[in-house]
């Protein structure tokens, strides 16, 4: 009797399996995307998959000097997605890699590279970007006006989240961890400048400026390590950005307002714009999958510094960047699935790198003239 029941269950499973597989395939239809961390100096790899119900998938890859979109075939075998392409295809790693279907996600692995594909909605991504901009700008104002919120968010919260949430979120790229804690420490340092007497010492002010200079230098090293012409052009722009950064750094300190904002009076609007151009080009060239949100993060610091309170850009940049990294480490896969696919090809890469270089060369001449006039 038991054997007959098992046979009937097996027969029922064979009959249902095609319909179940078909249902899964229908659920997969649409856009899926992931960001894969590259090896040191490689940047990140951005993949967008457009699964069709007719076993066709359009795969887009943006990474380094590569910008490809190829049409391949796919099929679902149990919980594994098998992708096959054409002999002359460039995106071959998705054919040899493994894709395991999970609960509303697909786990990818191939030769040490790993990633998680998540469904992507263009409309939801735009909404997320707008809310991120508003949220970062609002929090910037909160941290300006309330020191208790500042210390709670950037001292207590990281201590708690590091061992309860962040360590379990699958963020393994060491550079991201260094970036997270370095920018959080910068916020703490700026807070000490605002609310203690250490702002009287020039070495304290110099360290505040060096936080930004070292941040730029790290990115320049990444650009040069990539070795492609657009990266080299933008790397040179970054060097010029560092050269022109330190003008008036001894004036860094708290102002007389009730917020005691840390201000850098001699940091000019043109330098900020040149920095923003260089930075977004750096992300576009090295971490293309993060371009849309990093544009928002940059904007969330620049708008308050230009239109709410001048001189506070460095403070706002630290607040917004640290907040974003804390948010990313808490919800890494969610933030990656809400990134927009930004157009990218060789011509665009050269063009934006040229704009970055030209902007920083122009500001270099402005900087030299300013220094000469001051010395006269």
From TrEMBL:
Swiss-Prot/TrEMBL keywords: Membrane, Signal, Transmembrane, Transmembrane helix
Which Pfam families has this protein been placed in?
A: DUF5692 (PF18948)
**TM regions (residue ranges):** 121-139, 148-167, 173-192, 204-222, 228-247, 268-285, 291-307, 314-330, 350-368
Instruction: Please tell me whether the keyword Amino-acid biosynthesis is annotated for this protein.
Output: no
Q: What is the residue range of the signal peptide feature?
A: 1-23
Under InterPro entries, the record lists: DUF5692 (IPR043747)
In the UniProt record, does the keyword Transmembrane helix occur?
yes
Domain of life of the source = Bacteria
- What protein am I looking at? DUF2157 domain-containing protein
């Amino acid at each position: 009797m038991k054997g007959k029941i098992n046979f009937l269950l097996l027969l029922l499973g064979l009959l249902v399996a095609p319909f179940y597989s078909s249902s899964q395939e229908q659920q997969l239809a649409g856009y899926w995307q992931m960001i894969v961390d590259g090896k040191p100096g490689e940047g990140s790899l951005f993949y967008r998959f457009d699964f069709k119900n007719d076993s066709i998938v359009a795969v887009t890859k943006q990474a380094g000097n590569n910008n490809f979109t190829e049409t391949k075939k796919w099929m679902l075998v149990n919980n594994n997605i098998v992708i096959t392409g054409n002999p002359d295809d460039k995106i071959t790693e998705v054919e040899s890699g493994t894709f395991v279907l999970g609960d509303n996600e697909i786990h990818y692995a191939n030769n040490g590279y790993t990633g998680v594909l998540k469904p992507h909605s263009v409309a939801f991504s735009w909404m997320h970007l707008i809310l991120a901009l508003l949220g970062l700008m609002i929090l910037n104002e909160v941290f300006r006006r309330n020191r208790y919120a500042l210390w709670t968010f950037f001292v207590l919260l990281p201590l708690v989240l590091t061992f309860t949430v962040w360590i379990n979120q699958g963020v393994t790229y060491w550079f991201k961890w260094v970036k997270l804690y370095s920018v959080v420490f910068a916020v703490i340092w700026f807070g000490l400048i605002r609310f203690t007497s250490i702002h009287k010492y020039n070495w304290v002010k110099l360290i505040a400026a060096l936080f930004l200079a070292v941040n730029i230098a790290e990115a320049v090293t990444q650009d040069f390590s990539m070795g492609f012409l657009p990266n080299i052009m933008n790397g040179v722009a970054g060097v010029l950005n560092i050269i022109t950064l330190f003008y008036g750094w001894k004036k860094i300190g708290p102002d007389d307002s009730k917020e005691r904002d840390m201000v850098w009076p001699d940091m000019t609007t043109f330098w900020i714009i040149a920095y923003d151009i260089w930075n977004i080009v750096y992300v576009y060239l090295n971490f293309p999958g993060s371009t849309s949100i990093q544009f928002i993060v940059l904007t969330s610091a620049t708008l308050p510094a230009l239109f709410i309170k001048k001189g506070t850009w460095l403070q706002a940049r630290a607040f917004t960047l640290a907040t974003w990294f804390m948010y990313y480490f808490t919800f890494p896969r969610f933030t990656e699935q809400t990134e927009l696919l930004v157009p990218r090809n060789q011509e665009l890469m050269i063009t934006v790198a040229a704009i970055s270089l030209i902007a920083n060369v122009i500001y270099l001449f402005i900087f030299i003239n300013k220094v000469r006039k001051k010395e006269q």
